[in-house]
Write a sequence for this structure.
């Protein structure tokens, strides 16, 4: 079983939720955050991307940036833009995109469950990104954005959630980025809170869908507070939103390369893939990817005998890595190699064409999305996916929920 706990959320005033809510800190750069927050003093970017409010000469990781984030958080609270609840509660968070709905439980999950591998991961993290979020959490003394978790569906949990949504009015209901509708319900009645806690005893495992760096950072700050004598009930938990896996959609995470393309490129690709010129810009099945070279699109279909049996090696992103990125271009570490970049599926294939046609990139690969069943299988096997294997849409907005660690 996994532990879920109600918490005294810090959240926006109802009238301001749509103005406060912002895209996650890690899907926009500083300039984009600056532009999105322009003219909006309520934007959560003032807390989550506080470099927009300090001198542009400072690094986004300068201590003054984290201090500014904490100051802005206190200012939001002082002005009533954000308010801390007096009573612990659970929340339901529904996102509707293109007619598809997903509803998650907003809760606090257990650091101990993560250490016991009841909360499973599928990605490695980078130290510098952990340090960034650890500094943000420490200085703000709060989990400032939620981790996106998933679980295998439980009929009783889903029935309870749908019944609650039907019987109660949402506290937030607004549309935002990419025309996604966001609705939130509060569950603050003790019998209902106990019911949720009881229902989740049937859930053996949670899976990190998105937010590995936030998870590692939250856990490490909690362990620091244990060591430093600052431990309390809140420091043993971290903020999460948990969705059943059958409601989630993983989008493609595409690749572009800035490389010298050898003359025998297609013949070398053909050693492992069946290459066909096509008008199709997105692959239609697992095992396919689409290639754009500035002249035409091609379908690359992996030869069946080239597919390994292990759950990581058979992923399309892993096949591309092995047979093209490494074998042809010697790109071994896609985290650090400057010859590769990544384009989330929400940006579409037109962006891939524009990048290649600009001359800054020579090749674009449109990938087939990794499936949720593959993510769970990899995590259960205690294996790690290649970097940039998954892109989830819609994005959970930040600023709707914060979890106070209560050590200041």
């Amino acid at each position: 079983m996994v532990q879920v706990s109600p918490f005294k959320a810090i959240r926006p005033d109802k009238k301001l939720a749509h103005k406060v809510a912002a895209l996650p800190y890690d899907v926009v750069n500083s300039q984009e955050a600056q532009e999105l927050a322009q003219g909006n003093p309520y934007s959560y970017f003032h807390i989550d991307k506080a470099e927009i409010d300090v001198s542009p000469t400072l690094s986004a990781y300068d201590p003054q940036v984290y201090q500014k984030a904490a100051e802005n958080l206190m200012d939001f609270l002082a002005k009533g833009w954000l308010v801390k609840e007096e009573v612990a509660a659970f929340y339901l968070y529904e996102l509707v995109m293109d007619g598809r709905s997903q509803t998650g439980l907003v809760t606090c999950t257990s650091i101990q469950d993560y250490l016991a591998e009841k909360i499973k991961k599928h990605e490695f993290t980078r130290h510098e990104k952990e340090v960034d979020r650890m500094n943000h959490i420490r200085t703000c003394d709060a989990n400032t954005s939620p981790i996106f978790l998933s679980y295998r569906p439980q009929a009783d949990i889903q029935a309870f959630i749908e019944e609650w949504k039907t019987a109660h009015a949402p506290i937030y209901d607004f549309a935002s980025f990419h025309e996604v509708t966001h609705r939130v319900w509060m569950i603050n009645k003790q019998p209902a809170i106990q019911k949720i806690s009881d229902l989740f005893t049937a859930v053996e495992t949670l899976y990190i869908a998105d937010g590995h760096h936030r998870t590692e950072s939250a856990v490490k700050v909690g362990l620091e507070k244990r060591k430093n004598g600052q431990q309390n009930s809140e420091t043993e938990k971290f903020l999460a939103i948990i969705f059943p896996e059958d409601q989630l959609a993983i989008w493609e995470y595409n690749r572009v390369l800035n490389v010298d393309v050898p003359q025998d490129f297609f013949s070398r690709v053909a050693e492992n893939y069946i290459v066909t010129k096509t008008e199709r810009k997105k692959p239609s099945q697992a095992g396919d990817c689409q290639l754009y070279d500035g002249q035409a699109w091609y379908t690359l279909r992996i030869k069946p005998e080239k597919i390994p049996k292990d759950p990581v090696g058979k992923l399309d992103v892993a096949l591309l890595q092995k047979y093209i990125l490494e074998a042809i271009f010697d790109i071994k570490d896609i985290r650090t190699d400057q010859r590769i970049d990544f384009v989330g599926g929400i940006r579409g294939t037109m962006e891939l064409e524009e990048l290649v046609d600009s001359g800054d990139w020579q090749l674009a690969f449109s990938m087939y999305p990794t499936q949720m069943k593959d993510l769970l299988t990899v995590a259960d096997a205690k294996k790690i996916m290649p970097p940039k294997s998954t892109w989830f849409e819609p994005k959970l907005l930040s600023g709707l929920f914060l979890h106070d660690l209560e050590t200041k």
Remarks:
- The mean pLDDT is 96.
- Residues 4-249+394-404 form one domain.
